[in-house]
Amino acid sequence: MLAILWITLAIVETGDSNDATTTAVGPFGTIPAPVCGQIQLMMDNCFHNTTPRVVADMLYTVKIPENADDIASRCLLFNRGMDCVQHYLDNCVDQKDRKIVENEVYGARKLYEFLCRDKSFQREFLRHKTCFHHVHPDWDRCSKDFVNIMKEEMAKTNEKTYNVQYMHFCCFIVGRHYGISQH
């Protein structure tokens, strides 16, 4: 999820490389000042020296939580990442583009709100973990395809503005979903 969020942020990135000097304090320690235009650096710094320690290796693995401890670890990771991303958005991205990102991650935020805070939802989620394991390979493949398509589109930034590129990408995904070929 955070990989998709990172790529979404890269699309709406303003390209402004001004250094932001504002740090913030979140529930898991100090959130480093973002360097506008340097999303990868922001993500790397986000999980460095956190309290409690957030295992950043989990960023690069997709694993269905098996128990309440796994859920707690994923929630810690997701919430820290969202705190850092929000800090970056507040300091580096204009309001219009910030709204695009907020819309993109709305569903994930709501899922994690329920998963992280609602114990009955956690029990229900864990009751269906075998189903999630069954669909996980397809979901993982779809997520990787999405990330690869986004990376390919982002590489074309010298040909189009970010907003036009984002619109074309959305049209491509909708067209692909409905079986419409692009000419």
From TrEMBL:
Q: Which domain of life is it from?
A: Eukaryota
As given in the record, the signal peptide range reads 1-17
Sorted alphabetically, which keywords does the UniProt record give? Answer: Signal
User: Does the record bear Signal in its keywords?
Assistant: yes
State what protein this is by name: (northern house mosquito) hypothetical protein
Q: What organism does the UniProt record list as the source?
A: Culex pipiens (House mosquito)
